């Protein structure tokens, strides 16, 4: 009997446990600006403070994997275990938008403290009251989580604008980071399905050319919009989390939906 299925299962289990134990998930291109007809290569990455491990592609863990380029949206179908997950050569020039949504995964909380720490970090200070108000136990309960990631890459001129692609939760950039001159604030809008998400925390990770990462917190306004301060030569990850009750009959009692977007500001 081939050992490949066994090895593959072990890899999947390792990646799932690592993802559950860590925090942010993002799409990490090798290069945010490429020449026309060059191949775009990008990794799935999971970790904290804009540092993490590369995760291979597995179809059972992926609900949607596409690139938007011009008016076209192309489905990406990597081979099992591919890392980088994205190897794609666009035709033409413009703004390339990479989109990935994961299938739901679950994690079991053996203690309340760990879940409370997560809730506090992601700005859900009322979580204990909400949890106990539903008559839920403080240990041994399950959470379901999904990732909804986006990355902006310039091909050639990089001309074009980001737009909504229908991710379950999604950041939309209101300006092109590669073509807007002297950009000091990037306008973004955060969505929960079709609705703008007001008064939501955005965690922004800024990586400087020397590798130093700075983390700042921002909030959306009543229309789900925020103007985020950016600097030339930096790479950014935006992160925002929805935490809501799971549907009746689900093994999990809470669902978390993580929106992420990565981009670079040229020198």
The quaternary structure here is single chain
Structural class of the secondary structure composition? mainly beta
- What does the largest sheet look like? 10 strands, mixed
Radius of gyration: 19 Å
Poorly predicted sequence stretches spanning 5 or more consecutive residues = 1-22
Count of alpha and pi helical runs: 3
Tell me the fraction of residues in β-strands, as a range.
over 45%
**Beginning-to-end CA distance, first to last residue:** 54 Å
Secondary-structure element pattern, one letter each: HEEEEEEEEEHHEEEEEEEEE
Tally the beta strands: 18
Bulk shape: globular
Share in helix: 10-25%
Mean pLDDT: 92
Structural write-up:
With 267 residues, this protein is mostly beta strands. The chain has helices spanning 4-21, 112-121, 127-133, and strands spanning 24-29, 33-34, 40-48, 51-55, 62-69, 72-75, 86-88, 94-102, 105-109, 141-155, 169-173, 185-192, 195-196, 201-207, 213-219, 225-229, 235-245, 254-264. The strands form 3 sheets. Strands 2, 5, 6, 8, 9, 10, 14, 15, 17 and 18 form a 10-stranded mixed β-sheet that branches. Strands 1, 3, 4 and 7 form a 4-stranded antiparallel β-sheet that branches. The chain is globular, with a radius of gyration of 19 Å.
Keywords for this entry:
mainly beta; single chain; 3 helices; four-stranded antiparallel β-sheet; 267 residues
Summarize the structure.
The protein is mostly beta strands.
């Amino acid at each position: 009997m081939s050992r490949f299925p066994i090895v593959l299962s072990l890899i999947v289990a390792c990646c799932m446990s690592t993802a559950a134990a860590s925090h942010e998930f993002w799409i990490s291109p090798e290069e945010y600006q490429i020449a026309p007809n060059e191949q775009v290569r990008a990794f799935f990455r999971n970790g904290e403070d804009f540092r993490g491990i590369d995760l291979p592609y597995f179809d059972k863990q992926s609900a949607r994997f596409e690139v938007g380029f011009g008016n076209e949206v192309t489905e990406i179908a990597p081979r099992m275990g591919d890392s980088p997950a994205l190897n794609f050569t666009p035709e033409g020039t413009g703004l390339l938008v990479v989109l990935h949504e994961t299938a739901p995964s679950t994690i079991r909380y053996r203690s309340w403290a760990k879940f409370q720490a997560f809730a506090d970090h992601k700005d859900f200070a009322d979580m204990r009251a909400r949890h106990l108000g539903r008559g839920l136990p403080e240990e041994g309960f399950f959470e379901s989580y999904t990732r909804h990631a986006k990355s902006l890459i310039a091909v050639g001129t990089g001309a074009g604008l980001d737009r909504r692609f229908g991710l379950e939760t999604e950041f939309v950039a209101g300006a092109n980071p590669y073509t807007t001159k002297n950009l000091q604030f990037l306008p973004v809008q955060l969505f929960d399905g079709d609705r703008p998400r007001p008064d939501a925390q955005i965690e922004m990770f800024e990586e400087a050319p020397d590798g130093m990462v700075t983390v700042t917190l921002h909030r959306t306004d009543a229309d789900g919009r925020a103007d985020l301060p950016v600097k030339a030569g930096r790479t950014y990850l935006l992160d925002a989390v929805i935490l809501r009750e799971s549907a009746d009959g689900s093994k999990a009692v809470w669902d978390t939906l993580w929106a992420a977007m990565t981009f670079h500001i040229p020198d």
